[in-house]
Structure formats: structure tokens, C-alpha cells
Write a structure and sequence with these properties.
Elements (H helix, E strand, L loop, with lengths): L1 E2 L8 H16 L6 H8 L5 H13 L3 E2 L8 E2 L1 H11 L7 H13 L4 H16 L2 E5 L8 E10 L2 E8 L4 E7 L6 H15 L4 H7 L5 H19 L4 E4 L2 H4 L1 H8 L4 H27 L1 H11 L8 E4 L11 E10 L3 E10 L4 H23 L3
Parallel strand pairs: 1-9
Antiparallel strand pairs: 2-3, 4-8, 4-11, 5-6, 6-7, 9-10, 10-11
């Protein structure tokens, strides 16, 4: 697991206090005071000593005072320090792992069903929004071609890529061609080009008939666009971050006044992150760009992006926990959870790590070890 952050130099007690502040604030988004920490955790020091340590944390930029409140809240830098040094190893319980594994093994042998199930499991387990991209080859490769005559010179081209991605395009040929001849051409191209990249396919066109060369060039163009194009993305759990009352009900707070205070805090604290999360999921180009930069193709393990890491203004109020999954050299995808920076990081990281491993094992059964 990696997270970008220049680590501050803290004493052991300051680290312990930052740990408590982050966990308190994640559970309920109200500023954390020195008095509350001393009373709630029976700290063997005075409130004045805790205030001094909190002042040092504030000087390091790890916590901040909202408005005129006596309490403090974590900053993006504070969350990064927490994730990098204080969170410790965290795993889902064996019972949770068994339940998740059972859900996948009960589902049909269908990649799209696995994708939808993965987003549902991640959203439910991490209490946040989740996403997953369709596993695709690092370079688009040809697998199968079908040509379907429609009317006149119009032909529907159906191209299946390695990994199962399907692309369709209407073609207008120079002359009308029968279905029999179209099927013959599709079969010849499929036999000659199985497993090929766009450049390999273009190299074959010089030795083909005019019709075969025309279709082959169009197939290569589609493969080029697939290399640069968008992946199908599934997501789930938006209610977890968009509806403050839904979040409040999970906190199991019964006192009416306390509920009102927390609801107001949720609306104030989480709304910017919720709206940025929604925008990110809606804007496919932006999402593709950020996923590609935040999670390099050869990146291993879980990666954490908090508050845009100073690189993306669009993520200033968002945290993302991401991982690759799949079979290297065959097909790879990305999955993760995202939402406002006030996130249950330990649980989210554990969920992403476990589901990524599970999805990789399922795809390994399909693609094999070659």
C-alpha cells in the first residue's frame, strides 16, 4: 500500500493523539477537543498537555481548527500520515471473507455479473461508493470477426477483442456484397488475425483481395480506437455518500439533539466530497485520466489517493483506494472505493485488497496461467 506524503516528525504521543483524532472524526464528523480525548480514553496526561501536542500537530498541518471551534479535525495531510504510518495491518474478519467468497462462487460464470457483485460488495463493506473497470488486455488484440449484411452496401461489423470486449460499427462498402461472401471474408480474417495487434493486421492487408483489405483496415482502426478508448465502468454505493440521513442511520445515534448536530455536520463536511465523487463517476474521460495516472500499469498492491495529492483539483475533497486485478499479460482491470476524505480507511483498504485478490483468482480460472 502506498500513499504520497512527506512525513512529519512526531513523538509517539503525538502519533497516538493523531490516530485518535482521525478515528473519532471518521466515526462522527464533529471537531475533537482535548477534553473529550482525555475523558474518553483515560489519557494519563492533562488536557493542557494534550492541547500542547495538538498545537504541534496543527503546526505540522496534520489537524486544523474549523471556524472558531475549540476542537480540531484532520487535514488531508493528517489522513495521509494516518494511512501511511498509523493504520496498521487490517483485514476483514474470516466470517466476512467467507461470506464474500460464497457470494462470488454462488454467482454464474459471468464476468459482468462478477463486476456488479464486486462493486456491491465493496460499497457495502466500505460504506462508500465503489467502482470497477472491465478487465482488458494492455493492448487490444483481435479475437473474432462477424460481418452481417443489412441492406444495400450497409454491413454491420462485430469485432470481439481478447478479454471479451465487443465493438460494433456500421460499414458502407464500395459495392453490395452477399451474406455468403461476407461470412467467408470474416472467417478468413478471423483465421489469419487471431491474437494480432492493429499493426500486425495492417501488415497483412497487402496480400489480400480488395474487399478483405478494406475490412482489415477498418478492423485495425477499431483496434487502435480500443487502445485509446474508454473501459466499461460499473459503480455502486452512491447512496452511502450522497444521503446524509442514510449515513447517520449507520451511526446508530438515538439522542435527537445529537442526531441533529451530526446530520448538520455530515451535510457540511461530506457534501463537497460527495459532489466531486459524483462528478468523477459521471465524467468518463476524467475518470480514465486519473485512474491511469494514479495507478500505473505495473503498480502492485493497494494505492491510496487523498485530497488529490496536490495534483488534481477535481479530487480535493475525495479519497480513493484503488487496486489492479486480473491476470498479468492477459487482462487487467481496476477496482476501488471512493468518497469524501472522511473515510473508514482501514476497512476500505482491507475490502479493496481482498476483493481484488478474489477477482484475480476468478479470472485466473478463465485465462489459465500461461
Amino acid at each position: 500500500m502506498e500513499v504520497n506524503n512527506a512525513m512529519a516528525q512526531l513523538t509517539q504521543r503525538q502519533e497516538y493523539l493523531l490516530n485518535l483524532i482521525v478515528r473519532e472524526y471518521v466515526n462522527a464528523p464533529t471537531p475533537v477537543s482535548s477534553k473529550a480525548l482525555v475523558e474518553r480514553y483515560n489519557l494519563a496526561v492533562s488536557s493542557a498537555t494534550v492541547r500542547n501536542d495538538m498545537a504541534a500537530l496543527e503546526e505540522e498541518g496534520l489537524i486544523a481548527a474549523p471556524h472558531t471551534s475549540a476542537g480540531r479535525v484532520p487535514t488531508e495531510a493528517g489522513y495521509r500520515y494516518f494511512v501511511q504510518k498509523l493504520i496498521g495491518e487490517s483485514e476483514l474478519t474470516p466470517a466476512e471473507q467467507r461470506t464474500i467468497r460464497h457470494q462470488f462462487h454462488q454467482s454464474r460464470l459471468d464476468i459482468e455479473e462478477w463486476l456488479r457483485l464486486a462493486t456491491s460488495v465493496l460499497a457495502h463493506t466500505a460504506h462508500s461508493a465503489s467502482l470497477i473497470t472491465l478487465p482488458v488486455a494492455s493492448r487490444a488484440r483481435f479475437k473474432h470477426l462477424e460481418l452481417v449484411h443489412t441492406q444495400g452496401r450497409l454491413v454491420l461489423m462485430i469485432l470481439v477483442l481478447g478479454g471479451g470486449d465487443v465493438r460494433q460499427q456500421m460499414l458502407t462498402l464500395a459495392e453490395p456484397v452477399s451474406q455468403e461472401e461476407l461470412s467467408q471474408v470474416a472467417g478468413q480474417i478471423t483465421a489469419a488475425c487471431a491474437g494480432c495487434l492493429a499493426s500486425d493486421i495492417r501488415a497483412r492487408s497487402a496480400h489480400q483481395t480488395a474487399l478483405e483489405a478494406e475490412i482489415t483496415e477498418l478492423v485495425a482502426d477499431l483496434l487502435d480506437r480500443a487502445d485509446k478508448g474508454h473501459r466499461l465502468t460499473y459503480y455502486d454505493g452512491l447512496s452511502n455518500i450522497l444521503d446524509p440521513s442514510y449515513v447517520l442511520n449507520r451511526l446508530e445515534v438515538s439522542d435527537p439533539q445529537e442526531r441533529e448536530e451530526i446530520l448538520h455536520a455530515l451535510e457540511e463536511v461530506d457534501s463537497p466530497g460527495a459532489l466531486q465523487t459524483l462528478r468523477l463517476l459521471e465524467e468518463q474521460n476524467l475518470l480514465e485520466e486519473i485512474l491511469a495516472e494514479a495507478l500505473a500499469p505495473d503498480e502492485q498492491g493497494v494505492q491510496v489517493v487523498i485530497g488529490g495529492e496536490g495534483r488534481w483539483e477535481e479530487l480535493r475533497h475525495i479519497a480513493m483506494i484503488l487496486s489492479h486485478y486480473g491476470v498479468h499479460g492477459q487482462a487487467m482491470g481496476t477496482l476501488g472505493v471512493l468518497g469524501p476524505v472522511r473515510l473508514h480507511y482501514g476497512r476500505a483498504i482491507s475490502a479493496v485488497r481482498y476483493v481484488a485478490g478474489l477477482m484475480s483468482d476468478l479470472l485466473l480460472d478463465i485465462y489459465g496461467t500461461d
